Amino acid sequence: MTDTLPRTETAVLDHWMNGAPWAGASDRTGQVFNPALGTVQKEVRYATREDVGAVVDAASAAWAQWRDASVAKRQAVLFSFRELLNARKEELAEILTAEHGKVLADARGEIARGMEVVEFACGVGHLTKGAYSENVSTDVDVYTLRQPLGVVGIISPFNFPAMVPLWFFSIALAAGNAVVLKPSEKDPSAANWLAGLLTEAGLPDGVFNVVHGDKEAVDALLEHPDVRAISFVGSTPIAKYVYETATAHGKRVQALGGAKNHMLVLPDADLDLAADAAVNAGFGSAGERCMAISVVLAVDAIADAFVAKVAERMAGLRVGDGTRGCDMGPLITGQHRDKVASYIDVAGSDGATVVVDGREVDVDGDANGFWLGPTLIDNVPTESTVYTDEIFGPVLSVVRVDGYEEGLGIINASRYGNGTAIFTNDGGAARRFQREATVGMIGINVPIPVPVAYHSFGGWKASLFGDAKAYGPHGFDFFTAEKAVTSRWLDPSHGGINLGFPQHD
Ligand code: NAD
Fold first, then answer.
1. Ligand 1 test: best mutation among 290, 450, 460, most atoms within 8 Å of CB?
2. What is the mean pLDDT of the segment spanning 276-293?
3. pLDDT tens-digit map of 128-178
4. CA-based radius of gyration for the chain
5. Between the chain's N and C termini, which has fewer beta carbons within 10 Å?
6. What's phi and psi for 69, nearest 5 deg?
């Protein structure tokens, strides 16, 4: 299946500027598929550099007022946005399923995890409080302020078209910034829907804007002198490029990259719990999650039993149209589906064993959808590209290890460090693991350890470029600049000339 199927509809999705759709000047567009049907359902505009410039100008103008909006006013807008989102989340879930393909239950989960961050951002008053030191020198006080940066750019991936933007823009707006969001061109409609809801919630026009497009739009944001910070989420090569380009243009950058998440199963683990977890975390959202488990490191003593339990559970999974109550939907495009499937070909020639082959899946959906069923590959050598590449699809690999040390060594040798999990009933082993694994987010008998909104989300190594993680306290630090004020109110006894470096008395 290719991505150039006949069009069923020619609606074109515009950018969003100053509180309304905006066509811009570009005549370039891209196709947006319904992955469960394999058809093009709309087109989306691809912004030029000039289009991006116009949107940044609008955001800069709006920021001049928004930066002075009181904390109470900003909180009120966010509270109102949260209430509207909660009331209308089913509409958004339907958009996510139609363009991404994830099943409705999963789309609802994505929205719930994004809404958590909106709720957290409502605490902006607490989270941007500074510190105050009285009388550090005679009659001199020092205090710190956290101030918004200005216009910030957010560039998001296809796999969470609502949650990832919500992670960033909720906090950026609460902190008093203006936002330009460049969502994935593969499933862009959620961004406009969220923009409309922000307007309805009372956000002044121009404070939140959306530009659609590809590399040209991204580069324009990375290089624009009035964009102060960039939050990026996507694959590692693009994250690295974004980090290097935007920092070279003087911006503050957080660029979250790809992943290859391992789950270490020790012999004393509850194997049923571990098998459930591997199936849920391996195949949820068709494996298109940056926190998906893609490799199980199974200790030899239990590996056969574990693989049998996983295969047994996989036999019960229903693959099909996300609106029909299935467990797993299609992949994002035909091209991506073909790429993921190519790893199943490679597996055999690399000496691995294909236990369940997703190419043979029965589907409850249209024959033209971008389907690939859950796939289980055992005995994967760590030299195989099945192991080394981020596959980003419903392919779960099993690498057999002789014990904890070998498993930990493999995890720590990985270039990625987003998430990892250990399944064990041994508290000592779990405690060692949380200390020794060189990974940003650790699960102990929890397969997808995405932190709650009041902790921050982010990996290590090639999974995050920059110092700041997403949301939580890091989010407010990232979207504000700290200023230290040293003040003295006039006291005649402190007059006089002194050219020495200030000292305290
Ligand atoms: P992607 O890197 O292809 O695209 C991400 C964004 O970058 C999109 O907005 C896209 O338009 C833009 N982009 C694509 N190519 C570009 C280029 N050459 N120059 C400039 N911009 C470009 O990623 P994707 O396929 O949309 O998303 C999947 C990837 O995102 C996976 O690697 C996944 O692990 C990663 N991801 C990571 C996290 C995390 O938190 N670490 C979360 C979600 C997804």
1. 290
2. 98
3. 999 999 999 988 999 999 999 999 999 999 999 999 999 999 999 999 999
4. 25
5. C
6. -65, 140
* Beta strand pairing call for 12-13 and 293-299: unpaired
Q: Which residue has the tokens 């550099």?
A: 49
Please indicate whether residue 290, judged by its CB atom, sits closer than 6 Å to ligand 1. yes
Separation of CA 385 from chain center? 24
Locate the DSSP E strands across 402-499: 416-417, 419-423, 441-444, 460-461, 464-465, 480-488
Token pair listed for 262? 């391992």
Q: Count other Cβ atoms within 10 Å, centred on residue 71.
A: 15
- The pair phi, psi for residue 303, each rounded to 5°, is -60, -45
Is pTM beyond 0.85? Reply is yes
Give all strands (DSSP E) within 291-374, no chain letters.
293-299, 319-320, 353-356, 363-364
How far apart are alpha carbons 78 and 118 in whole angstroms? 7
**Using a 6 Å cutoff on CB, does residue 235 contact ligand 1?**
yes
Residue 300 has pLDDT above 60, yes or no: yes
Residue from 300, 269, 306, 260 nearest 420 by CA: 260
* Whole-number Å distance between alpha carbons of 197 and 19: 10
For the packed helices 104-121 and 71-99, what is the interaxial angle rounded to 10 degrees?
Answer: 170
Query: Which numbered atom of ligand 1 lies nearest the CA of 463?
Result: 41
pLDDT of residue 79: 98
Amino acid type, 413 = A
- Within the chain, how many helices (H) and strands (E) appear? 15, 25
> d(Cα 481, Cα 484) in Å, to the nearest integer?
10
Q: How far apart are CA 356 and CA 490, in angstroms?
A: 79
- Of 13-22, 327-336, 455-464, 483-492, the poorest mean pLDDT is in 483-492
290 counts as catalytic: yes
Give the Cα separation of 420 and 294 in Å (integer). 10
Q: What is the pLDDT of residues 309-359, one digit of tens each?
A: 999 999 999 999 999 999 999 999 999 999 999 999 999 999 999 999 999
Cα separation values, 485 from 240, 344, 504, Å: 36, 60, 15
What is the whole-number distance in angstroms between the Cα of residue 427 and the centre of ligand 1?
Answer: 37
Query: What's the rounded Cα separation, in Å, for the pair 301 and 244?
Result: 45
Are 82 and 117 in contact, with CB atoms under 8 Å apart? no
The finding on whether 466 has its CB within 6 A of some atom of ligand 1 is no
Taking the C-alpha atoms of residue 389 and residue 343, their distance in angstroms, rounded to an integer, is 9
